[in-house]
Amino acid sequence: MTQPTPYPQHAALSLAASGVPVLPLRRGKVPFGNCTACADNACGGRPNMRVPGPCRCPAPCHAWAAATTEPAVIVSPAWAAAWRRAVCVGYHPGGADLTVVDLDDADAIRWARTTLPATRAVPTTRGQHWIYRGAMTSRNAVRPGVDIKSTMSYARYLGRGTGPMADLPDAVRALAVKESSPVRPTTVAVPTGDGVGECPHRTPAYLERGIAMAVQRITEASSAVHATVYRTFLAVLSRHGRCGCLTDAHVARLFTAAQGKGETARHCTDAWTNARTTLGL
Fold it and tell me: Does residue 74 contact residue 68 with C-beta atoms inside 8 Å?
């Protein structure tokens, strides 16, 4: 007798048919961990769901980067095993050109109603998801009770919601960079090994080139991703970490590159903290 399709898998197929990349979420509403072959990103990872990396693992590995709209993948044996254990469906908002503003409580909802344009709203356990048309950088804790989930992130699917979907407003984009500090003037005195020296960032291009090279080094890593990320963070901080020119936006670019290789946000934070500790920053 044919077995019934598990509910999460059935919902995932329906959602994928509308162009939204999906993935199974296990207990705790988190993605399934990487399989043995992909543990610690040994396979090289998947930079993003639109341009897959060298890994061709049939299992739903690599968290948000595994999200897909392909029915053949969603019903494959490897994914079917995950669906039987799944508690709900997750999706990659950025892969569908969407942004989810996750409002975690009543205070956050009140703030959104007085600050952001109305858009499609989906009830959650304690708050709401406000969904906008358009993708942007994801960032957690942009203000109390508010997270942004879009590129390189996943959200829990809780239904279609109500209300028309609005275009992503500048007010939401600004939340991701709201606390970035400005680049300091070009001749700031900073402590060096010889006493006091001038900040080397006499032009924005100097720092920009360093960040671009660091992002490229992480993106091109084909093995030992954990070590590469740490060494790159260490190199950036050793060169640019003492004068105060690094902003949250620069750090976000490095974290985004690392997460594109399969690193979690926690791994990125730990690597950055460890590098700062090593350098005494």
Answer: yes
Identify the three-state secondary structure at position 104: coil
Encoded tokens for 21: 């990349």
Pull the structure tokens for residue 236: 């950036």
SS3 11: helix
Per-residue pLDDT, 240: 77
User: Cα(41)–Cα(46) distance, rounded to whole angstroms?
Assistant: 9
Residue 231: CB atoms within 10 A of its CB come to 16
Beta bridge partners of 133: 98, 167
- Token couple for 170: 């500048």
What span, in angstroms and rounded, lies between the C-alpha atoms of 161 and 148? Answer: 17
Question: Measuring CA to CA, how many Å separate 79 from each of 12, 33, 85, 86, 262?
Answer: 11, 13, 10, 10, 19
Q: What is the pLDDT of residues 40-53, one digit of tens each?
A: 777 776 654 444 45
β partners of residue 124: none
Q: Which amino acid is present at 11?
A: A
Angle, helix 225-240 to helix 265-279, in steps of 10 degrees:
50
At 192 the three-state DSSP class reads strand
DSSP state of 181: P
